[in-house]
């Protein structure tokens, strides 16, 4: 039986197949690198969160900027509860931001600085409440609990930073406690 030379159409089909496979492999590699970069950025903002939580946040479309806003707005709300931000509260807020990767000169630092100079309006705090309530519906009970405890812990730390008068009064003022209770309701 005489062998026929390779069918030129078969060769073209094979080349197209492998070109498409290579394109798909390259696309998957780029997507993986992009995911790793987004994970790294979230890891800077949420250094103590486990990988599964970080991945879930990314799946929900929550990036580092949103995570920072969701984290820091409640702290700012507590700091402004008494109508002004004490130097100790400012220091506690900036320390919490630094620990979460907010660097001086970054956009996040500028927004936080603006919130420290000018109290955010009620429309922003209401938007925060709606956002976290919507976000909670996409989280497991465990994830929601972890987020709640972390946020309330940070907010309580800011409230306690101002301290009481000569250690004779409560470290947390009535106004700050009212905001903490409001935050707890929003996160529950």
Report what the structure shows:
This protein is mainly α and about 190 residues long. The model has no long low-confidence stretch (mean pLDDT about 80). The chain has two domains: about 10-55, no CATH class; about 65-185, no CATH class. Helices cover about 75% and strands about 0% of the residues. The chain has eight helices and no strands. It has helices at about 10-45, 50-60, 65-80, 85-100, 105-115, 120-135, 140-160, 175-185. Helix 3 packs across helix 7.
Number of domains: 2
Low-confidence stretches: none
Biggest sheet descriptor: none
Which percent band covers the strand fraction?
under 5%
Q: What is the H/E order?
A: HHHHHHHH
So how many helices?
A: 8
Shape: elongated
Fraction in helix: over 70%
Helix-strand category: mainly alpha
User: How many angstroms does the end-to-end distance come to?
Assistant: 79 Å
Radius of gyration: 25 Å
Based on DSSP secondary structure assignment, what is the total number of beta strands? 0
Mean pLDDT: 81
Give a quick summary of the entry.
This protein has 188 residues and is an all-alpha fold. Helices cover 73% and strands 0% of the residues.
């Amino acid at each position: 039986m005489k062998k026929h030379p390779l069918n030129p159409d078969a060769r073209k089909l094979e080349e197209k197949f492998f070109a498409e496979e290579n394109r798909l492999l390259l696309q998957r590699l780029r997507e993986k690198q992009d995911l790793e970069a987004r994970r790294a950025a979230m890891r800077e903002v949420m250094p103590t969160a486990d990988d599964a939580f970080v991945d879930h946040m990314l799946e929900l479309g929550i990036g580092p900027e949103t995570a920072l806003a969701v984290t820091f707005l409640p702290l700012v709300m507590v700091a402004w509860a008494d109508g002004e931000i004490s130097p100790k509260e400012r220091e506690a807020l900036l320390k919490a931001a630094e620990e979460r990767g907010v660097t001086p000169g970054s956009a996040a630092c500028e927004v936080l600085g603006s919130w420290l100079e000018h109290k955010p309006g009620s429309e922003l705090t209401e938007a925060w409440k709606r956002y976290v309530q919507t976000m909670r519906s996409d989280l497991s009970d465990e994830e929601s609990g972890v987020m709640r405890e972390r946020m309330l812990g940070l907010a309580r730390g800011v409230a306690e930073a101002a301290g009481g008068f000569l250690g004779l009064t409560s470290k947390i003022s009535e106004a700050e406690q009212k905001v903490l209770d409001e935050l707890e309701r929003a996160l529950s």
